[in-house]
Design goal:
This protein is of the alpha+beta class. About 60% of the residues lie in helices and about 15% in strands. It contains 2 helices and 2 strands, in the order αββα. The protein is elongated and about 65 Å long. The chain starts with a helix and ends with a helix.
Length: about 100
Amino acid sequence: MNISGISVSALLAYEKKLGVTANNIANMNTENFKPSEAATNESPHGGVYVTIRQLDLPEVDIAKEMVDLMIAKNGIQANIKGIQTGDEITRSILDIRV
């Protein structure tokens, strides 16, 4: 898998993590709601995938959710930069060959 493919895979994983975090925050005042957690995992063929599990906690920990949001934000920004860098390298290689 190339750098762009890995970065796209990670972007999709962070999108899922954001969805889980948003659901936890949106339902934090819902009676009997159990929060979930999204964990990123390395794929054996390159890239990233997410596993989601429900936590056995009585309520949503807003501090944890805010940290998860910051992690997702930074992960998204880093992988966008990875895609941009991959495109720049490809353009440079094409310029050299032409």
